Every structure is written in C-alpha cells, then in structure tokens.
Amino acid sequence: MISRVLAVDLPRHVGERVKIAGWVHRRRELKSVTFVVVRDRTGLAQVVSRSAGESGLPEETVVEVRGTVTANEQAPGGYELTEPEFVPLSEPAVPPPFDLYRPGMAASLPTVLDHAPVALRHPKLRERFAVTAASVAGFRSTLDGLGFTETHTPKIVSSATESGANVFGIDYFGRRAYLAQSPQFFKQALVGVFERVYEVGPVFRAEPHDTARHLAQYTSLDAELGFVTDHRDVMAVLRETVAGMVDAVAGIVPVPEVPAEIPSVHFADAQELIARHTDDDPRGEPDLAPAHERWLSEWAVRTYGSEFLFVTGYPMAKRPFYTHPDPDRPGYSNSFDLLFRGLELVTGGQRLHRHADYLAALLARGEDPAGYRDYLDVFTHGMPPHGGFAMGLERWTARLLGLGNVRWTTLFPRDLHRLTP
Amino acid sequence: MISRVLAVDLPRHVGERVKIAGWVHRRRELKSVTFVVVRDRTGLAQVVSRSAGESGLPEETVVEVRGTVTANEQAPGGYELTEPEFVPLSEPAVPPPFDLYRPGMAASLPTVLDHAPVALRHPKLRERFAVTAASVAGFRSTLDGLGFTETHTPKIVSSATESGANVFGIDYFGRRAYLAQSPQFFKQALVGVFERVYEVGPVFRAEPHDTARHLAQYTSLDAELGFVTDHRDVMAVLRETVAGMVDAVAGIVPVPEVPAEIPSVHFADAQELIARHTDDDPRGEPDLAPAHERWLSEWAVRTYGSEFLFVTGYPMAKRPFYTHPDPDRPGYSNSFDLLFRGLELVTGGQRLHRHADYLAALLARGEDPAGYRDYLDVFTHGMPPHGGFAMGLERWTARLLGLGNVRWTTLFPRDLHRLTP
Known about the structure:
Chains A, B: Belongs to the class-II aminoacyl-tRNA synthetase family. Type 2 subfamily. The first copy, chain A, has 421 residues and is of the alpha+beta class.
C-alpha cells in the first residue's frame, strides 16, 4: 500500500507513482483529454487523463488518485498527475448550489450561510479560518510567553455578567440560569490565583438587532493581569499580543504594521479633534459614535502612520461599574478602546480592586451589592491592582481581511434569525 | 521606580535592593523578628523584619515589599528579603475559611468549591490548573504539527446532538434551542473543509445524577480527521496526542509512560478475559461496567506494563448512530475507548461517511432522518472516510493527578446542585 502524498508535496516526487486524495474540485472534458483538479487541505493538484469518461465523477466527489508526478509549466503549481487511476471514496457528489472552483465565491452571504458546511470548502472562504486559527495561536503564544495561564470558566451563570439586558436564559435543573456574556468576573477572580490569565471561549449575547458586527455567540479573547500600575500596563500587554497575532498570520495574508508603541489619544482630546476638524461637535457626549471612530482611525493613519489607535479615558458614565476611575481626572476612567481600521476592536482597562470601592460604585449606580455577592467576596480577601481586555475574534479577522460583516469570519453564525446549520 | 522581581528570580539579585509583590502567604511573629512569606505566581519569598509589628498585615493581603536579597539556607528557596519596607496594595484581607499556607488543603470539597476564588490560591490546588493548561497546550501543539486546524463551533443548536436526553434548553429569541452536548456534527462537517480539525471548548450535559465523574459543563478536547482507512488511523493520532500532552506536563508533575504503541484489546476478547479471570461473566452484555474497565486496566499494566489500554470494536448497539460498523464482524463497530488508570478517558472511532449509510442507520434505529437534515446534507456533497475522538479535559487531569472527583480539576464546577460561584 502506498501512502498518500499531499498536493503541496508533489514537487518532491517528480517521476514517481504516487497516491493523492481529495475532492474533485474541477473537471473539464476536452475532446481527447480530461483535466481533473483535486483539492486537498494543502492545495490543488491537476490530474490529466487521456481516456475520456473514466473520470466522470461530479465535482466534490471524494477520490483517491494514483498517477505519475509530471512537471508541466501549464499545470497549476507546475506539476500534474498523468496516467491516473481513480478510486471514488464517496458516493458521486450532489452539486452544491454554487461553484466552488471559481476564483471567488459568487453566492450571497445568506446562501453561503445556509450551505456553510459546503460553502466553506471554497479555498478563499476556508483561508479566512486559517487566519482565525493562526490569530488565536498568536494570542496564546504571546501570553504564554508573558507568564499567563490559560483558563476555562463556566458559561452557565446564576446572574447576568455585565447587565441584565441581552442575556439568554436557560432552564438549569428547574432553576433559572443564564449564558455568560463574558468571563469578566471569573477572570478577575483568577487574577487572585494566577496573577495573569487568559481565556479563548464562546460568549453569548441575545442581540436583538440584526447588524453586521454583532452575533448571538462569538469567540472572546480575554486576558486579565494583576500588579499593574494602571491601564497603561494593560495596553502594553495588549500591544504585544496584537503584534504576536499579526506575526502569526503574516505568512497567510498581508498584515498591518503594529507600531512599537501604538499611538494613544485621550477621549476628551479625541472629541476636541473631531470638533475642530469635522462638522460634528461631540463634546459632552459620553461615548464615541461609529463615525467618530472612523474619523479617528483615519486621523491616526495621517498623523502617526498607524492603523491602530488607543482611545483612553472614556467617561465613567459609559463604562461598567468595575471600571477604575482616573485618579487625576474625575469623571474619566482608566479604560481604553483599541481602534483598528475604523472600528473598536478591543475594550479594556484597569478595574477596581478594593472591596469598598466596589460597594461605593454599585451604590452610586443605584445597584444592590447583594446581587453581586459571589463576585464581590473575592475582593475582601486581597486583590492586587489589575486590568485586562477582551477582543472579539470574528471581528478581528473581519477587520484584518477587510470584510464588512462578522458572519464572513464565523463558521456557523448564530443570530436573531439564524440557528442552523 | 524599580521594577518588580518575581520570587523565582531572587537568586539572580543577591545583595541587591529589589521590589517583590504578592500575597501575604504566612506571617509568623517571634519575639524580635517577624517572618512574612510572600506568594506570587512563581513561588514563595520569605521576608524577615526586625522591627516587630510594622508588617501586621493579615494573610492574603496584597503587598509590595522592597528589601535586600540575602542568601539564607534556612529560608524557603534559599534566599530571603531583609531590611524590608512594606506597602499594602489591597485592604487588609479578611481571612479565608481555611489556611492557604498549610502544605495540604484541609477543607472538604464542598467548602473548597463554595470558596473557589480564594481556595484555588492554595499552591497545591493552583498547580492542578497549571497541569490542565499545559495539557491543552500539548494537545494543540501535537495536532497543529499533524496538519489540524483549530475551530470554534456553535454552542447553541437547534436540536440535541447525541440524543434527546440530558440536554439544556434555552429560550432563543422566542424559539426553543439547546446547548450543544458535543461539537460532533460540526467537526464532521468541517472534515469536508479542513480534513483535520480540533476544538477545545465547553460542552453541556444536563446530568441528572450527582457523580464524581460527570459535570453539567466540561471542557471537551475534540479532534476529527478525514482520509482514514479505519479507526486504527484515529487511534494512532490519539496516541501521538496523548504523548504530546504527557510531554507537556512532564515538567510539573510525575507522568505515565505512553507506549510507542498503546496495547489494544477487542471488546469481545476483553469480555472473554473478564469471564475467564474473574467471577463475572459479562459476555453478551453490550458495554463494559466500570469494574470491568478497572480490571482491564490492571490487566494491561500486568501484561503490557501500560497504564493506557485501547478497547476496540464496541457493539454497534451501544454506540451512536454515526458509528461505522466493523465490515468483518457484524454487530461490532470500528470504535474504541481509551482506558487510563481504570477509567474511560477517550471515546472515538470511525464514522459513517456515505449518505445512504446514514439513512439506513437512522431508519434501523427507528429515527426519522428528517430530524437530522442539516447534519445529513453534507454527506450528499462528498465526504471522505473519517473518524475522531473526544476527551474530557477535567477527567484527564483528575486521572493524571490521582484525584477521585472531576470537581477537583474544574475551576468553578457546574452540576445538579451547584451554579455558583
């Protein structure tokens, strides 16, 4: 029995009789010759058959092909298999409702999503998830190198993490429970154990709006670290992490440069800039509008040559109760967003770490600390100054690849309307 | 400002004035001297103070300490900080309901779980999760090296994955949905895209029983690969993966040897062995009882010197409908379990890959294929022979560390009774 050779390895076997296996990507029958392109996980291999008809297998049928590796400049990749013998490994495939062999995917997003298990086979679509996988590998290896510990925390929780809104309820053995909107509370508690933790896992938001940037489930890249001076230490770790992610995908797709220090602008200064240079005057608003994020991103490219921009110091009013205030500027916080190509990619900041500060923050917002008892308890037992950040994986890949909808970078999206496949 | 030195790095700074930071692990006041042991993520550092009282900080209070690194054979690790200045970074800590500084954790499992965010700080408990993290890193790096792609699939699904039982229901925008019991259907579909995929993620089982080996949420290490001859190719990849996991934790805890080829016994032969050598006669039973798994594990140690044992060929009757039958032994399957130290650690096997076989398998079980339409559709579009496996991460760590309850290796377990912290 000869073992399988991958498409990418054909050049190492010129003149040899080998076995390849994969999907019939494209079949073209000419008068005296049939070209069959076979797709495997590494690429495409052309098979040339002189005996017309013997390879009458529909596209997407899975085949094993024995043949002789022959150099041919016209063949994709420069090599092809000649004198082939075909053995089908699947039933003849039913044609998918789009052509997987064309350079681009012509079908609309809804059609692609309806038929995701087959549509994702398109090399261009598939490549996006190679970028996703490499990004996560870069995220992890960077944080591993910085002394972080990977954790796995509950996705079923007894109360809403961030707010009561947009949370999925579950029947938990007859009790009411919820799907976790973030690992926020867990990762903070785990700073008390490991000092530095990260988690890559699903988070759930019952988003009632049908937008291009929100999903009911997405993959959150979360990190949290203790013994920080303030949010700037968190930003430095985030910069390293993004650089590690970019390095990890650099072999697959073109990547942006990550400056040694990502430029940073305070929220108040950002509003001043927008007021001075655009027709808008956002001063006094507690948050940035999407159009303002886009303008600031363009400004950072013009001013610093950077596609990344930190906006720091968001008003306390619009940040969660666990946000640490800026000790020098009342009303502003030790928080940040990282903008990338016009969109908020990461949110983070320093958190409160003293129990008394939590009580005061909750009371100031009219919330009952009793509802957060489990979360707050850890702060009575000694917690260091700490902070962290969260990045949406699908959003990262979409921005990196210039795709306007996060559904293009989610294998099987879940949203208001979509629960299958 | 001097930067922080970690406990593990003190030997490199003898004679220098340094800053350390961490938790007051243990404080002992003698007549003329106070010993304060500070714990950080790398270990313990002893601080010696001659001016009694100045370090009157309760255990678990977070502190920064400046001091001079001094060699002292009596000190834990051989070095200590002298002439210290203490700066508390947290409020004085409320003492936890157990002593974190004792060599072992004296509290019972329920007490530990009730106070997990603080209990996990105990170095012995914490170490278990370093083993968990390293295991997952070994799982991934092995599969990355074998050409696998990491994926992230939906945890919210429209129907139960494996069976209707033990599934959590959710209210999904007014529709009924469920928490995924496994990524089984997704990983099979993704074999059609990437050939080789893995996922590390939460799975959910509404286990109505309170046992030492089941949880409502656990972390599943899933892999699936195409172009296999049969289940033996899957077992070979699993053996590599387990060896990679063992290598990854070898620096932290003692590890078992993974044989170059893990011994394997067919289910029918395993029953014969048990009938011949014990008072039990399980022949005719469709599955192995826990006592039989224990006996087989001991037998593998005696016979092969291996703590790992594959049992292959489980009867079709007890395996899921997607299981590939053994073409040579009707009634038996191309499936396997991997036993480790008396317990089933991994389940896997070859799956059906032809659409017609799926229809026949479901009809033979009296199930309506219409209920599996999304899943089955992919098999009409060309799927290669494939198989895979799933391992419970918490169970792996528990077995490896000789712990009898998976709750000891879960940060924040979820079960019939426990939804917090």
